[in-house]
Amino acid sequence: MELIRLTTRLTLFAGFLGLTATLACTLLLVETLFRCQIDRAPFARICFNGVSRCLGFRMSTQGAFSERPVLYVSNHISWSDIPVLGGQVPLRFLSKAEVGRWPVIGWLATQAGTLFIQRGSGKAGQARHEITSTLSSGQSVLVFPEGTTTAGVTVLPFHSRLLHAAADAGVDIQPLSIGYLRNGHPDHLAPFIGDDEFQHHLIRMLRKPAVEVGVIAHPVVTIDNTTDLADVTRDLRQTVHDGLRQIQAGRLSDQASGGPTAVAGPEL
User: Fold this and answer.
1) Between these two residues, 241 and 124, which has the higher pLDDT value?
2) What is the average pLDDT value for the chain, to the nearest integer?
3) What does the alpha-carbon distance between residue 105 and residue 226 come to, in Å, rounded to a whole number?
4) Distance separating alpha carbons of residues 251 and 268, to the nearest angstrom
Protein backbone atom coordinates (compact mmCIF):
# COMPACT_ATOMS: atom_id res chain seq x y z
CA MET A 1 0.00 0.00 0.00
CA GLU A 2 2.86 2.39 0.80
CA LEU A 3 4.34 1.81 -2.66
CA ILE A 4 1.00 2.54 -4.34
CA ARG A 5 0.53 5.65 -2.22
CA LEU A 6 4.06 6.87 -2.95
CA THR A 7 3.70 6.25 -6.69
CA THR A 8 0.35 8.02 -6.84
CA ARG A 9 1.50 11.03 -4.86
CA LEU A 10 4.76 11.30 -6.77
CA THR A 11 2.74 11.31 -9.99
CA LEU A 12 0.53 14.07 -8.61
CA PHE A 13 3.60 15.96 -7.45
CA ALA A 14 5.26 15.63 -10.86
CA GLY A 15 2.12 16.92 -12.54
CA PHE A 16 2.00 19.78 -10.08
CA LEU A 17 5.64 20.60 -10.83
CA GLY A 18 4.79 20.78 -14.52
CA LEU A 19 1.90 23.14 -13.86
CA THR A 20 3.97 25.42 -11.62
CA ALA A 21 6.77 25.53 -14.19
CA THR A 22 4.25 26.45 -16.89
CA LEU A 23 2.79 29.13 -14.64
CA ALA A 24 6.23 30.58 -13.94
CA CYS A 25 7.06 30.76 -17.65
CA THR A 26 3.68 32.30 -18.45
CA LEU A 27 4.04 35.02 -15.82
CA LEU A 28 7.55 35.82 -17.03
CA LEU A 29 6.39 35.96 -20.65
CA VAL A 30 3.49 38.29 -19.84
CA GLU A 31 5.79 40.58 -17.83
CA THR A 32 8.29 40.68 -20.69
CA LEU A 33 5.75 41.31 -23.45
CA PHE A 34 3.68 43.90 -21.61
CA ARG A 35 6.51 45.39 -19.54
CA CYS A 36 4.53 45.09 -16.33
CA GLN A 37 5.05 43.66 -12.87
CA ILE A 38 2.60 40.93 -11.84
CA ASP A 39 1.76 40.37 -8.20
CA ARG A 40 2.73 36.74 -7.72
CA ALA A 41 1.32 36.38 -4.19
CA PRO A 42 -2.16 35.15 -5.27
CA PHE A 43 -0.60 32.58 -7.60
CA ALA A 44 1.82 31.46 -4.90
CA ARG A 45 -1.10 30.98 -2.50
CA ILE A 46 -2.89 28.72 -4.99
CA CYS A 47 0.29 26.73 -5.50
CA PHE A 48 0.91 26.45 -1.75
CA ASN A 49 -2.54 24.87 -1.41
CA GLY A 50 -1.64 22.54 -4.27
CA VAL A 51 1.44 21.34 -2.38
CA SER A 52 -0.67 20.66 0.72
CA ARG A 53 -3.11 18.61 -1.34
CA CYS A 54 -0.32 16.61 -2.96
CA LEU A 55 0.99 15.83 0.52
CA GLY A 56 -2.47 14.58 1.50
CA PHE A 57 -2.90 17.07 4.32
CA ARG A 58 -6.29 17.25 6.01
CA MET A 59 -6.35 20.82 7.24
CA SER A 60 -8.56 22.42 9.85
CA THR A 61 -8.39 26.09 10.77
CA GLN A 62 -9.80 28.12 13.62
CA GLY A 63 -9.89 31.86 14.07
CA ALA A 64 -9.90 34.84 11.75
CA PHE A 65 -6.79 36.05 9.96
CA SER A 66 -6.35 39.79 10.07
CA GLU A 67 -7.69 41.73 7.10
CA ARG A 68 -5.03 44.39 7.65
CA PRO A 69 -1.25 44.02 7.30
CA VAL A 70 0.19 42.35 10.40
CA LEU A 71 3.35 40.66 11.58
CA TYR A 72 2.44 36.98 11.97
CA VAL A 73 4.41 34.89 14.46
CA SER A 74 4.15 31.10 14.53
CA ASN A 75 5.77 28.01 15.97
CA HIS A 76 7.92 26.14 13.46
CA ILE A 77 7.85 22.37 12.94
CA SER A 78 8.66 21.64 9.32
CA TRP A 79 9.28 23.04 5.85
CA SER A 80 5.64 22.11 5.23
CA ASP A 81 4.63 24.97 7.55
CA ILE A 82 5.37 27.23 4.58
CA PRO A 83 2.76 25.82 2.14
CA VAL A 84 0.25 25.27 4.95
CA LEU A 85 0.41 28.84 6.27
CA GLY A 86 1.13 30.39 2.88
CA GLY A 87 -2.07 28.85 1.58
CA GLN A 88 -4.19 30.47 4.29
CA VAL A 89 -3.68 34.16 3.56
CA PRO A 90 -1.46 36.37 1.37
CA LEU A 91 1.79 37.00 3.24
CA ARG A 92 5.55 37.09 2.88
CA PHE A 93 7.90 34.88 4.85
CA LEU A 94 11.18 35.55 6.58
CA SER A 95 13.23 32.42 5.99
CA LYS A 96 16.77 31.09 5.97
CA ALA A 97 18.54 31.45 2.64
CA GLU A 98 18.82 27.72 1.92
CA VAL A 99 15.02 27.41 1.68
CA GLY A 100 15.25 29.28 -1.61
CA ARG A 101 17.29 26.38 -3.04
CA TRP A 102 14.77 23.66 -2.12
CA PRO A 103 12.80 22.04 -4.96
CA VAL A 104 9.22 23.35 -5.38
CA ILE A 105 9.05 25.02 -1.96
CA GLY A 106 11.99 27.27 -2.75
CA TRP A 107 10.45 28.46 -6.01
CA LEU A 108 7.06 29.03 -4.40
CA ALA A 109 8.62 30.87 -1.48
CA THR A 110 10.51 33.09 -3.91
CA GLN A 111 7.34 33.83 -5.90
CA ALA A 112 5.59 34.75 -2.65
CA GLY A 113 8.28 37.37 -2.05
CA THR A 114 10.06 35.60 0.81
CA LEU A 115 12.70 37.66 2.58
CA PHE A 116 15.72 35.34 2.68
CA ILE A 117 18.41 35.83 5.34
CA GLN A 118 21.76 34.15 5.97
CA ARG A 119 21.86 32.28 9.27
CA GLY A 120 24.55 33.41 11.67
CA SER A 121 25.39 36.38 9.50
CA GLY A 122 24.64 38.97 12.18
CA LYS A 123 22.21 40.73 9.88
CA ALA A 124 19.23 40.88 12.25
CA GLY A 125 19.21 44.66 11.87
CA GLN A 126 18.93 44.39 8.10
CA ALA A 127 16.17 41.78 8.43
CA ARG A 128 14.29 44.07 10.80
CA HIS A 129 14.58 46.91 8.29
CA GLU A 130 13.30 44.73 5.43
CA ILE A 131 10.37 43.48 7.50
CA THR A 132 9.49 47.03 8.54
CA SER A 133 9.63 48.20 4.92
CA THR A 134 7.43 45.32 3.76
CA LEU A 135 4.87 45.87 6.51
CA SER A 136 4.81 49.61 5.78
CA SER A 137 4.07 48.86 2.12
CA GLY A 138 0.84 47.11 3.15
CA GLN A 139 1.99 43.47 3.06
CA SER A 140 1.86 41.00 5.93
CA VAL A 141 5.01 39.13 6.98
CA LEU A 142 5.36 35.82 8.84
CA VAL A 143 8.34 35.08 11.08
CA PHE A 144 9.21 31.99 13.11
CA PRO A 145 10.61 33.54 16.31
CA GLU A 146 11.80 30.21 17.73
CA GLY A 147 14.61 30.49 15.21
CA THR A 148 14.55 26.77 14.35
CA THR A 149 12.22 23.83 13.81
CA THR A 150 11.09 21.59 16.66
CA ALA A 151 9.62 18.13 17.19
CA GLY A 152 6.18 19.72 17.38
CA VAL A 153 5.35 18.80 20.97
CA THR A 154 6.21 22.14 22.58
CA VAL A 155 7.16 25.70 21.64
CA LEU A 156 10.65 27.05 22.30
CA PRO A 157 11.24 30.54 23.75
CA PHE A 158 10.68 33.31 21.21
CA HIS A 159 13.39 35.74 20.14
CA SER A 160 12.11 39.30 20.33
CA ARG A 161 14.55 41.17 18.10
CA LEU A 162 12.49 40.91 14.89
CA LEU A 163 9.23 41.79 16.63
CA HIS A 164 10.44 45.39 16.85
CA ALA A 165 9.53 45.65 13.17
CA ALA A 166 5.82 45.62 14.03
CA ALA A 167 6.24 48.64 16.30
CA ASP A 168 8.45 50.36 13.73
CA ALA A 169 5.77 49.91 11.04
CA GLY A 170 2.84 50.63 13.34
CA VAL A 171 1.08 47.30 12.74
CA ASP A 172 -0.35 44.62 15.02
CA ILE A 173 1.11 41.18 15.72
CA GLN A 174 -1.03 38.09 15.16
CA PRO A 175 0.14 34.81 16.74
CA LEU A 176 -0.52 31.54 14.90
CA SER A 177 -0.30 27.94 16.11
CA ILE A 178 0.31 25.01 13.78
CA GLY A 179 0.33 21.31 14.68
CA TYR A 180 0.42 17.94 12.92
CA LEU A 181 -1.52 14.90 14.14
CA ARG A 182 -1.52 11.28 13.04
CA ASN A 183 -4.04 8.91 14.61
CA GLY A 184 -4.85 11.50 17.25
CA HIS A 185 -1.23 11.97 18.39
CA PRO A 186 1.53 14.45 17.50
CA ASP A 187 2.99 13.27 14.21
CA HIS A 188 6.62 12.17 14.41
CA LEU A 189 7.15 12.27 10.63
CA ALA A 190 6.25 15.91 9.98
CA PRO A 191 9.05 17.54 12.05
CA PHE A 192 12.00 18.53 9.87
CA ILE A 193 14.80 18.68 12.41
CA GLY A 194 18.49 17.94 12.82
CA ASP A 195 20.48 17.05 9.72
CA ASP A 196 17.51 15.65 7.80
CA GLU A 197 17.57 16.32 4.04
CA PHE A 198 14.60 17.84 2.26
CA GLN A 199 14.30 15.18 -0.46
CA HIS A 200 14.40 12.27 2.00
CA HIS A 201 11.90 13.94 4.30
CA LEU A 202 9.54 14.62 1.39
CA ILE A 203 9.59 10.96 0.31
CA ARG A 204 8.79 9.81 3.85
CA MET A 205 5.86 12.21 3.99
CA LEU A 206 4.53 11.01 0.63
CA ARG A 207 4.72 7.34 1.65
CA LYS A 208 2.52 7.62 4.72
CA PRO A 209 -1.27 8.06 5.12
CA ALA A 210 -2.76 11.53 5.34
CA VAL A 211 -1.84 13.65 8.33
CA GLU A 212 -4.17 16.09 10.07
CA VAL A 213 -2.92 19.67 10.20
CA GLY A 214 -4.44 22.22 12.57
CA VAL A 215 -3.95 25.98 12.37
CA ILE A 216 -5.22 28.51 14.90
CA ALA A 217 -5.25 32.24 14.19
CA HIS A 218 -5.24 33.93 17.59
CA PRO A 219 -6.48 37.48 18.31
CA VAL A 220 -4.13 40.27 17.24
CA VAL A 221 -1.88 42.01 19.74
CA THR A 222 -1.33 45.76 19.47
CA ILE A 223 2.09 47.19 20.34
CA ASP A 224 3.98 50.44 19.89
CA ASN A 225 7.46 51.77 20.63
CA THR A 226 6.61 52.13 24.34
CA THR A 227 5.59 48.47 24.72
CA ASP A 228 7.76 46.17 26.84
CA LEU A 229 8.58 43.66 24.10
CA ALA A 230 10.11 41.19 26.55
CA ASP A 231 6.73 40.73 28.23
CA VAL A 232 4.86 40.69 24.92
CA THR A 233 7.24 38.09 23.51
CA ARG A 234 6.66 35.78 26.48
CA ASP A 235 2.89 36.25 26.16
CA LEU A 236 2.99 35.51 22.43
CA ARG A 237 4.99 32.35 23.01
CA GLN A 238 2.50 31.21 25.66
CA THR A 239 -0.46 31.90 23.36
CA VAL A 240 1.12 29.88 20.55
CA HIS A 241 2.03 27.08 22.97
CA ASP A 242 -1.53 26.92 24.34
CA GLY A 243 -2.83 26.78 20.77
CA LEU A 244 -0.50 23.89 19.95
CA ARG A 245 -1.78 22.00 22.98
CA GLN A 246 -5.35 22.66 21.83
CA ILE A 247 -4.56 21.25 18.38
CA GLN A 248 -2.86 18.20 19.91
CA ALA A 249 -5.97 17.58 22.02
CA GLY A 250 -8.18 17.76 18.93
CA ARG A 251 -10.16 20.67 20.37
CA LEU A 252 -10.44 23.16 17.53
CA SER A 253 -13.61 25.12 18.30
CA ASP A 254 -15.79 27.75 16.70
CA GLN A 255 -14.82 30.56 19.07
CA ALA A 256 -13.66 32.96 16.39
CA SER A 257 -14.43 31.63 12.97
CA GLY A 258 -17.89 30.17 13.02
CA GLY A 259 -16.48 26.66 13.10
CA PRO A 260 -13.29 24.95 12.02
CA THR A 261 -12.73 24.83 8.29
CA ALA A 262 -11.54 21.50 6.95
CA VAL A 263 -9.62 21.20 3.69
CA ALA A 264 -8.88 17.63 2.70
CA GLY A 265 -6.20 16.36 0.40
CA PRO A 266 -6.49 13.19 -1.67
CA GLU A 267 -7.64 10.11 0.21
CA LEU A 268 -4.55 7.96 -0.21
Assistant:
1) 241
2) 88
3) 38
4) 25
